[in-house]
Amino acid sequence: MKKIYPHKFHHLLPAQICRRAVLFALTCAVLSLVLPERATAQNEQDTIAHVSAVLVAQPKPNAVDLDVWVLNVSDNEWLMWANGTFQLEFPGIAMEECSVELLPGFSDLPAAQYEIIHNTFPGRMSIGVLGPRSFGDCIPVAVDDSIRVGRFRVSIPEPGFLPLTMDWVQPLTKFQATAFKIFDDRAPFFFSDDNVAMLVGDYATSYEVRDIDLPPFLLVDFHGEYLGDRKVRLFWRTESEYANRGFVIVRGIRPIGQLGDELDFVDTIACHELYPAENPDCRRADLNSPGLSLAPLDYSTRDTVEYREEEYVYRLYYHHFDGSLIYLAETRVYVPSSVISSAQANPNPFSRQTTIQYAVDDRVILTAKVYDYNGREVETLIDRQITPIGQYEIGFEASRLSSQGLYNVRFTAYPVDDPAVLISTADVKLQLIR
Fold first, then answer.
1. How far apart are alpha carbons 272 and 317 in whole angstroms?
2. Helix (H) or strand (E) segment spanning residue 32
3. The domains spanning 14-210 and 340-432 adopt the same CATH topology
4. What is the CATH number of domain 218-335?
5. What is the pLDDT of residues 206-254, one digit of tens each?
6. How is 100-133 classified by DSSP, letter by letter?
7. What topology is assigned to 340-432 in CATH?
């Protein structure tokens, strides 16, 4: 950053130099009379800008994301931010082995006017901002307002771990810098294309590092539901996460009648893509985590089971950055045989018509027929209809029947694409009165 003082007029014509010199002398005299308090304040190192580096995320063990902000804390000392150099370190980390990238969409600086460069060197990472040449092209920063220079991701080679601690490289006057631009009609007559440094001196800048406020790992829900066709869907939600590579789900079977919790969880049915490759039984699913989250997140996955009429027990874990699996919760899902349940008629007895309600416990091919007291078929209500899991009802009109008496509605069902299950039936007894 170049600071040009009024006596550096070697490129001006003699007449211009004389006019500038006279004007400068007059202005200095005026300033010595009317601005003594301002000069004293500058000697006391007024802080006119505050730069903060804020850790915002740790997407994976070997990487952290940080924001760099510039805040105008002056008393209308400056308006247009020009450029800066910001250099940080992670204690105990060989910074020359790290990489740094600018994440898109997080900078307040117009790309057409500002160029952001970044690199790593022994002992430090460096972020430089090259700003516009003219005052009018700079971005304004009002008093008590701030701009975000950008969000940067710092990474070390895998499988390293990058700690959530960083600091500004010292001494500040050597490694850190920021500057603003000034109109050339304001004393002491800087040219409009010159940058005024906010030094740790007359125009001072303060620097701060803010660490991540680490949240707890909070799971608020984990449950499953049977979808039919021996398929189970699992859902879970977290309120906050930390140091999470992703999730792992294991499955056990609790045979009907067995008590206790001693189950063999031999099947790892779902895991995230970074889960160790020596788990060949794990079905890779979209169970990755952002690593650190302060907002609620929803997840789900599916499983296909082998047997019916069993209770399947699922346990949810998360894979910590340190490699350990941490237990979160358990849920149970019963997979029924393919049956018709809760079949009943209302009203019953009836004189003209009735409604039959029934429940289907799996996706089935369903038939329903009406038989008289002698077992003769008198009507077909449903004929080989594919019916998903759910509650249903169907009306029965008796005006076509010639006599009152007892009738039987037989539901017959067998599951779709599952020939191993026997056909299941359910009967509803009806009494017709005239």
1. 11
2. helix 14-34
3. yes
4. 2.60.40.10
5. 999 998 777 889 999 999 999 988 899 999 999 999 889 899 999 988 7
6. EEEETT---S-TTT-EEEEEEETTEEEEEEE--S
7. Immunoglobulin-like (2.60.40)
Q: Which CATH class is domain 14-210?
A: mainly beta
Give the span between the Cα atoms of 318 and 18, in whole angstroms.
Answer: 75
The residue extents of the domains of the chain are 14-210, 218-335, 340-432
> Are 3 and 194 spatial neighbours (Cβ–Cβ below 8 Å)?
yes
pLDDT tens figures, 27-39 = 344 333 433 333 3
Helix (H) or strand (E) holding 212: none
Question: Which residue in 334, 331, 297 sits closest to 317, CA to CA?
Answer: 331
144-148: long-range contacts, CB 8 A cutoff, minimum separation 24: 144/71, 144/72, 144/73, 145/71, 145/72, 146/69, 146/70, 146/71, 146/72, 147/69, 147/70, 147/81, 147/108, 147/109, 148/67, 148/68, 148/69, 148/106, 148/107, 148/108
8-state DSSP, 193? T
Counting Cβ atoms within 10 Å, is residue 42 exposed (0-12), middle (13-18) or buried (19+)?
middle
Tokens for 399, please give them.
């005006």
Unique residue bearing structure tokens 């009203």: 347
